[in-house]
Amino acid sequence: MNARLVLVCAPAAEASYLFFFSLGFAVLVVFLRSTVGLDATSIGLMFSAGSIAGLLGAVLAARLSARFGLTRTLRGAAIARGAGLALLPVSLLVPAHTAIVVLILARAVNAGAWSVYEVLANSYQQATLPDRHRGSATAAGLWLGRSTETVGAASAAALAATVNLTLLIAAAGIGATSSGLLTLLANPTTQNPPSPHPKIHPVKGHRQAAAGDARKTMADRAIPQDDG
Known about the structure:
CATH superfamily: MFS general substrate transporter like domains
Strand content: under 5%
CATH topology: Growth Hormone, Chain: A
Radius of gyration: 26 Å
CATH class: Mainly Alpha
Structural class: mainly alpha
Number of helices: 8
Distance between the termini: 75 Å
Helix content: over 70%
Number of strands: 0
Oligomer: single chain
Low-confidence stretches: 190-204
Shape: globular
CATH architecture: Up-down Bundle
Mean pLDDT: 83
């Protein structure tokens, strides 16, 4: 499968995910306060845990790719970040005192997997695209992503007054998880995936030339000069 298909599937999965994420995230705080009954401290704890998981995901992305392979890690992260969002309504099915645990776990999975996906997808794009195309590809991806985020948030605003918040967030989570399935259409490992530990090889020609110049200098010094 060629790299062009990979570079199309990844932005498509990202745009679709951002739509559903914005759809659910736009009403998440209202859901946590009015439906789950969390206070401000618990909500802050939940988001803090997600931020820490996001940092860990970015740090561990290369190691996970080396351990499980780029394809499996990329696909798994794309699906897991949506699954984390889909877990949020599960907090209503457990006892009230354990709801915060489910919410922290859900947000941590979402944020951690998202970081892993972003690191690997961007690394693959940089390794595959020619230098002259990277800027335009990044701009197109950002434009598409921000556009779908806007549509998702606007859709949430329009639906929140008539649709139950739990159902809205559940639908957003299912949609976000389904978006990750788009990565199943691509197989980036067939196109020389980027190494998480790139190596820099010295240029032999320069080293040989330098060694030759050194030998020549030593030979010149060894030849006696004619005072004649």
